[in-house]
Automatic annotation (TrEMBL):
CDD domains: DEXHc_RecG (cd17992), RecG_wedge_OBF (cd04488), SF2_C_RecG (cd18811). It is an enzyme of class 5 (isomerase). One of its GO terms (molecular function) is ATP hydrolysis activity. It comes from Paenibacillus bovis. This is ATP-dependent DNA helicase RecG. The lineage of its organism: Bacteria, Bacillati, Bacillota, Bacilli, Bacillales.
Amino acid sequence: MNINLDQIGVRQVSGVSASKEGELHAFGISTVLDLLEYFPFRYEDYRLRALQEVKDGDKITVEGKIVGLPVLQRYGKKSRLTCKVMVDDWMVTATWFNRHFLKDQLTSGRVIILTGKWDQRRSTMTITDSEFPDKGTQRSGSLQPVYSIGGKITQTWLRKMIGQALDQYGEMIPEVLPQELIRQYKLMPRKQAIRQLHQPVDAGEGKQARRRMVYEELFLFQLKLQAYRSMNRKRSTGIVHTTDNATIREFVRSLPFELTDAQKQVELEILKDMRSPHSMNRLLQGDVGSGKTVIAAIALFATVRSGHQGALMVPTEILAEQHVRSLKRMFEPFGITVEMLTSSVTGRKRKDLIASLQMGMTDIIVGTHALIQEDVFFRSLGLVVTDEQHRFGVNQRSVLRRKGFDPDVLTMTATPIPRTLAITAFGDMDVSTISERPKGRKPISTYWVKQNMMDRVMGFISKEIDQGRQAYLICPLIEESDKLDVQNAIDLYVQMDQAFPKYQVGLLHGRMSAAEKEETMRAFYSNEMQLLVSTTVVEVGVDVPNATLMIIMDADRFGLSQLHQLRGRVGRGEHESFCILIADPKSDIGQERMRAMTETDDGFEVSRRDLELRGPGEFFGTKQSGLPEFKIADMVSDFEVLEIARNDAARLVSNEFFWTSPEYEPLREFLNRQQVFQGELID
Ligand code: ADP
Ligand code: MG
């Protein structure tokens, strides 16, 4: 008999009334399956303990024999009941509050199981739960599940209802995982695992049950992504880029440096995707300064030489400016045209630009998000390069497709993230990693100093600038719109301008007009300005190789990854570079974070530490993160399983049998419910 538990309303569980059904809805429980998959988030330990082994203040469960008579004191509606109980060889005084009705059951010589807080000095226990083994035990000797509850739903009621659901339907819980995986990992069968999670026989069984369900959850999640990816590939509607290697080599040879081995590797991966008929969806990650931009340039070159146009989307105008400048330098000898489109390009200029894009006269367009919107059309868009802040969601990509083009997409991340997290967050993408920085780079020395060392820092600034170098001075700006922070930047600028009359000091913040920002950056690029006081608008991408000193005020107000990005603005040329963090953090974690920065300048290590200190939710900025929420798996502690599950899922969908064999019907059914076949992904 094949009954779908997700088609049976939770009302069918005996004991669930219409009003309770409504309450359960609030927790996302509407079917029997929802109820069975409502897993506890921890367990209450009711296993029997020996008094010798427990500590004062522990919450414990013990068994003992009642000695003497109970004493009841009443205070109005409240009451206090005490009774002497012999536990092991100890005489323990058990105290119940407001349980006067127990008095008659506390007969001398009767065995009782007590749960409560142990006060060793006074040899007393304040009882939260008690029961008599001669009446049949419920809890003792077991781990009791604790669910997330609220409203009119109580722990006891929910435990009972889930127990009831297990009695009525537990045997009908179907297996979903393929037998080969169950065998390979010695996984507990699904129905057993679900039962064990709610009613663990012992800790070992509970652990096995969790292991099974974590694997299942991560596997199904990955299966969804991998199936989606595989179907996209099969659709074969992407652009086949035809540029040959000789043409590309010609461009690469024109660059002022040789590519690193890591760059060559990702170049190959990207070109392979671009030449294939499926549309590329690839994430390019690499530490700051690893040379991602030139890889983007090669890909853009390839699309243009294949007769298409390329778009480069960046988060800020400053960055757009910079890229236009450097791409023009690279592409002009090849007769490739590069233009910029941001919100400050308006009127006639904008109209002309859009027309030129539509006619295919502009080969490459660099801009902010504005450039893929509404009235912007291309003659033939072959490649979109974006960075992290503009990561296309699955839905945006299908919007692009519906607009009539299906370009290859290359996403670059400014924040390197641990590989396993990349797999989760960007599971539908292929990942390329630039794993080394160009040779000959001197490491960046990072120092953490207290505010009272500012005088010496000023001395250090003079020394560097006297040697012909340039410096950034960053002050915290958490919100672009925060007036107070802008004022901080202005104050600091005035102070520096007075302190260094010999040098040109500049100011940059988010409230300046685009033209002002542009002029400031131009002066800094050309070394007309030696010291730049700035908010975090220079955080990503800005590339001035002659700048060797990065000073960050109130550094403890920044996230580690952000500090690492800022630090990445120096160490980009041949000169030795320094990063100075000025901070007086109060908390241990704050100090730990500053120390972490001085200990490593490897971006992957930094994000690992950041993740450890903050947890994944905050790391990605909760909601926008796009990270899925799991019922039972934990993204940090279940990292390894995630990677295994991903490989298993990828292997399975690439097997033709998966799409036809009856054995995999339940999994295909699952994918169907997730609408993967309609080209959607539902989180
Ligand atoms: P990021 O990965 O942070 O975007 P960039 O692409 O801005 O790094 O590169 C950092 C600097 O290193 C740039 O000045 C760039 O010209 C230079 N660069 C890139 N690749 C190499 C290389 N293979 N050898 C030497 N310098 C390189
Ligand atoms: Mg392609």
